[in-house]
Amino acid sequence: MIQIKYFFGNVYTATVLGIAATLFILKDLQFVFGNSPPVLLFLVVIAFAAWRGGLRAGLLTTVLSAASSVYFLVEPYGSFDIAASSEILRIVLLVSVGSICSLIIARLYNQEKRALYTVMVREGQLKQEIAERNRTIAERNLYILLAKSSTEFIGMCDTEGVPFFINDAGLQLVGLDGLEQGLKVSVKDFFFPEDQAFIWDEFFPAVFQNGRGEIEIRFRHFKTGEALWMIYNVFALKDLNGKIVGLGTVSTNITARKQAVEALRESQRDLNRAQAVAHIGSWRMDVCNDRLEWSDENFRIFGIPNGTSLTYQSFLDIVHPADRHFVDTAWQDALTGKSYDIEHRIIADQKLKWVRELAELEFDEHGTLLGAFGTTEDITDIKSSQDALQYERRFLRQVIDAVPSVIFVKDREGRYLLGNEALAQSYGTSPEGLIGLTEEDFNPNADEVAYFHRNDLDVINTGKSKLIPEVKVTHADGSVHWYNTVKIPLIDGDKCNKVLVVATDITERKHAEEALRLADRRKDEFLAMLAHELRNPLAPICNTVQMLKMQETTDPKLAWGLNVIDRQVSHMALLLDDLLDVARIMHGKITLKTERFELSDIVNNVIETSRPMIESRGQELIISRTTTPQWIDGDRVRLAQVLSNLLNNAAKYTGEGGKITLTVMRDGSDAVIEVRDTGIGISPDVLPHVFDLFIQADRSLAHSQGGLGLGLTLVRQLVEIHGGTVTAASAGIGKGSSFTVRLPALSMESSIAGLPLTKASLPMPKFRILVVDDYADAAESMAMLLKAEGHEVETADCGMKAIDRAQAFRPQVVLLDIGLPDLDGYEVAKRLRALPETHDVTLIALTGYGQAEDRERSQSAGFNHHLLKPVDFAKLSDLLVCSQSKKGD
To answer: What is the DSSP letter of 310?
Structure first.
C-alpha cells in the first residue's frame, strides 16, 4: 500500500512539473510559435499521466493543462476569461484530444498492467517453485551427505532386490571396494547364507505388507566371509501416489555388542563352571524385601532345585540345628558392620556338609543398607582332609617322638620349627618348648653351637645334603654325646630357608668302637709280643743249626736232622711273618720297597726255596716260562712272598706223586704267573671265598701240613697293592686247582733304562761286634756264629752294660735287641749315637718286634738296619759287607 501511494505521488509530481515545464516553454518561447502557442504540447504530459496513473490521472492532467493554458497562455493573462473564440476552440480541442488520449492510453495501460500482473504472478509462482525445488535439492543433498557420512549401513533397493544406493560406511562394513561393485550385488547376497532364505521368503514380504520391519540378523563380509550381526531396520519406499517402489534400510552393526553379550554369557558360564569346579557359590541377600538370590552352584551345594524362591528363614532351615544360633548371631552382627566369615554345617540331600561363608554389605548412594553379597564354599572335602591331616600329624608326631633318633627342623636364623621328643629330652624341655628357640638356648658349649649353625647355613645356601658321620653334642645336663647326623635342605619353590636334621645317638657305638680299637691295639700288641717271644727261642735254635752246619759233618742222620730243624725254624718264622703281615695289611700299614727287576730273579729264588719241600713229597715241578725278560716295578721281597705262598700252597694240597706246573708268560701289558696243581681241588662253595682270611679248603689236610689260612689272603692283598689281580679256578673236588697272578709289566725300553748297575762280590771283612740281648741263648749262639766267621765279639745282657762295654770295646757293629730289661733298645741306640766312641757305629736292630711302627721307631732312634729274629745269617753277613762298602765309599 505504501508503495502504491508512493507510486502515485510520483506520478502527480511529475505531471505538475511537466505542466509547469510546458507552460514555461509556451510562455517564454511563444516567439517561436507566434501569438497562439501550440497548447497541444500538453498532450505529452497528459499521455504520460494517463500511462503512469491511468484514466483518472490523464483526465486530471487534461483539466489542469486546459486550466493552466487559459490562465497563463490566453489573453487576458492571469485570468480564466478567454478573449478570443479561437482560443476557446483550442482549449476545447486540448481537452477533447487530452480526454481521448487519456482514455486510449489508460486502456492500453490497463491491458498491459493486467498482462504485467499475470507475468508478475507467474514469476512469483516460478520463484516459489524454484525456491521449493532448491530446498528439496538441498534437503536431498543433505540427506545424501548425511547418508554418506553416517557410520550406519544405509542402502536402498528396488522391489526386485537390486540396490541403487549404498553409503560408504555400508560398503566398507561388508568389504566392498566401491559403489559400482555394490550395485552389482543382489540384496539377498548381502546376508549370511543360512539367513538368505528367511530374508527373501519371509521377512521382505512382511515389510511389503506392513511398510517396515526390524530384525537382528547376520550380514556377510564379502572378503573374509565372516558374519556381521546387524539390527536390520527396513522401511518401504513409496512414490507420490503411495505406491511401494523399493526398500530402504538404516542398519546398525552390533557385532561387537553381540560378541560382548556372548562373551558375557560365556563368562557367566565360565563363572558357573568355575564355581562348580571350586565348589564355591555366590549369593545376594536383599534385606529390604527378604529375598535371597543364589547362583547355580549355591543351589547345588545346598541341595535345592535351581530357581526355588528363597528367604533368610529358608536358608536357616537348611543350617544344621546345632549351628543355627551361631549362624544367625554372626549374620546379625554382620548387619551392624562386623566381619562375616564363618564355617558351619548344613543338611543337604540328607547329608552333612561343611560350608564356609563370606559376605560384604551393599549400600545405595545415600548409605542405606540394601543387603549383602557373599560366597559359599563347600569345604566338606577340606574338612575331611583337615581331619585326616590332623590324624596324620598326630600319627607323625607319635612316630617321630617314638624314634630314638633326634629329628628337628630349623630356619636360617637357627630357630627350631619342629623338634621331636628325643631332642626335647636331650635339652631338658618339651617339643613345644623348643619352637622359636635356638641351639644357644639349650647347649652350653658355644663352639658346638657355632659349628652346628655353620653347617646348617652351608646346607641351606648350597641346597645340598650333608652327612656328618660323627659330631659331639653337649646336652643340657652337661653330658657329652656323639651323633651321626644327616642335614637335608628343605626347598620351597626355588628357595631354601630351612634344614631338616636327623641325628642318631652313636654314643654307645662310639664307646664300643673305642673299646674295639683298644682291643684291636691290644691284639696287635699281643701279636707283636707273641711274635717277639716266639722269635726269641727260634733265634738260638737257628744260630745253633747254622753253627753245626759249619762243622761239615759226615753223618747223614745228623745232616738230615739239621736240615729238618733248619726247615722247621724257617717255616715257623714264615708263619710268624704271615701272621704279622696280615695284621699290617688289614690296617693298611704295609709299605712297598719298589725297584725295577726281572721277574725271573724272584722266580728262580722261590723255586730254589720251595723245591726241597716239593721234592720231599715226591711231587714233580714243571716250569714253563718265556724267553723274553719280564720286567717288573715292585717289591722283590713281597712278590717273592706271593709266589712262595702259591707254590707252598700247591705243595700242601697236592698228594705225593702229584704235579705242580709253574708258568711265567707275557699277556699284552701284563706279566702272568700261573701255578697249577693236580691236588685236592676246591669245592664250588669255597671257591668264591678262597682268598678270605682264615679260609682253608680242607682243614684236616691243611692242619696236617701246617698253616693258619693266611697265605692266600696275603697273596691277594700284596698283588692288589702292586696294581695287579689274582684269581683262582678249580673244576671241583679232586680235580686240582690253578691260581693266576697278573702284574703290570714294563716295556722293554723303560726296563733297560731303569736297569740297576751291579757290583762285584766283596770279601767278608772282620768287625768288632757287640751283641746285646737279654736272652742268653740267643746272645751266646749269635756270638759263636760271628766268632766262627772270624769277627771279634763281645756280649751284654742289658742296656747299661751295653753302653759301658761299647765305650771300652769301641765296636764297629752293634747287634741290639729292642726288648731289654732296663733301657729299651731305642734309648740305648740314642745314647750310643751321643757317645764319641760309638757315634759312627753301625747299629742293627735284631729283635722279635717287626711292626711298621717298630721299624719307624728304630730308624728315628738311630738304627741303620732292622732285622727280625731268627735272623738269616747269610743276609746278616751280606748286610755287614754292604755297610762296610758304603763306609769305604
So the answer is: B
> Quick one: which H or E segment has residue 717?
helix 711-721
Helices (H), 279-379: 296-302, 312-318, 324-335
If you write DSSP's letter for every residue of 25-39 in order, what string do you get?
HHHHTHHHH-SS--G
Please report the DSSP string for 241-276 in residue order: TS-EEEEEEEEEE-HHHHHHHHHHHHHHHHHHHHHH
What is the rounded CA–CA span in Å between residue 863 and residue 814? 10
Determine the 3-state secondary structure of 818 from DSSP: coil
Residues in the chain, overall count:
889
Contact between 446 and 431 (Cβ < 8 Å): no
Contact (Cβ atoms closer than 8 angstroms) between residue 824 and residue 799:
yes
Q: pTM for the complete prediction?
A: 0.39
Which triple of cell numbers denotes residue 52? 503512469
Task: Please report how many Cα atoms fall inside a 13 Å half-sphere around the Cα of residue 608, on the Cβ side.
Answer: 5
Question: Tens digit of pLDDT for each residue in 183-215?
Answer: 889 999 999 899 999 999 999 999 999 999 999
3-class SS of residue 305: coil
- Nearest in space to 344 (alpha carbons), one of 329, 332, 333: 329
Cα separation, 260 vs 257, whole angstroms:
5
- Identify the top-confidence range among 521-530, 540-549, 725-734: 725-734
Name the residue among 381, 383, 363 with its Cα closest to residue 371: 363
Q: Look at residue 132 and tell me whether its pLDDT is greater than 90.
A: no
Question: Strands 480-492 and 495-505, how do they pair?
Answer: antiparallel
Chain-wide mean pLDDT for the chain? 81
In DSSP terms, 811 is beta-bridged to none
* Dihedral angle sign, alpha carbons of residues 506, 509, 515, 519: negative
For residue 219, pLDDT beyond 70: yes
Alpha-carbon distance 722 to 595, whole Å?
12
Name the burial class of residue 334, with classes exposed (0-12), middle (13-18) and buried (19+) by CB atoms within 10 angstroms of its CB: buried
From edge to edge, which strands make up the β-sheet containing 792-796? 792-796, 768-772, 813-816, 842-847, 865-868
Q: Residue ranges of the alpha helices (H) in 555-658?
A: 556-586, 599-616, 636-652
Across 636-650, average pLDDT: 87
**Average pLDDT for residues 555-573, to the nearest whole number?**
70
**Contacting residues for 828 by C-beta, under 8 A, at least 6 apart:** 772, 799, 802, 803, 816, 820
Do 653 and 614 contact (CB within 8 A), yes or no? no
Kindly give the residue spans of alpha helices, DSSP state H, lying in 358-463.
380-402, 421-426, 431-434, 446-462
In the chain, what is the straight-line distance between the N-terminal and C-terminal CA atoms, in Å? Answer: 171
User: Checking DSSP bridges between strand 659-667 and strand 670-677, what pairing results, if any?
Assistant: antiparallel
Q: How far apart are CA 89 and CA 83, in angstroms?
A: 12
In the block, cell 561343611 appears at: 354
Distance CA 174, CA 224 (A): 9
Distance of alpha carbon 869 from the chain centroid: 70
Task: Locate 390 and state its grid cell.
Answer: 590332623
248-259 burial: b if 16+ Cβ within 10 Å, else e: bbbbebebeebe
The yes-or-no verdict on residue 702 having pLDDT over 50 is no
From the list 432, 457, 428, 431, the residue with the least C-alpha distance to 443 is 428
The three grid cell numbers given for residue 682, joined into one nine-digit string: 676246591
Q: Please indicate whether residue 399 or residue 538 has the higher confidence score (pLDDT).
A: 399
All three cell numbers of 545, joined, read: 743249626
The closest of 428, 514, 429 to 479, measured between CA atoms, is 428
The most distant pair of C-alpha atoms in the chain lies apart, rounded to whole Å, by: 238
The rounded distance, in Å, linking the Cα atoms of 185 and 176 is: 10
Of 785, 773, 809, nearest to 880 (Cα)? 785
Mean pLDDT of 242-256: 88
CA distance 437 to 505: 22
Strands 153-158 and 725-730 come out as: unpaired
Q: Which three cell numbers stand for residue 273?
A: 563352571
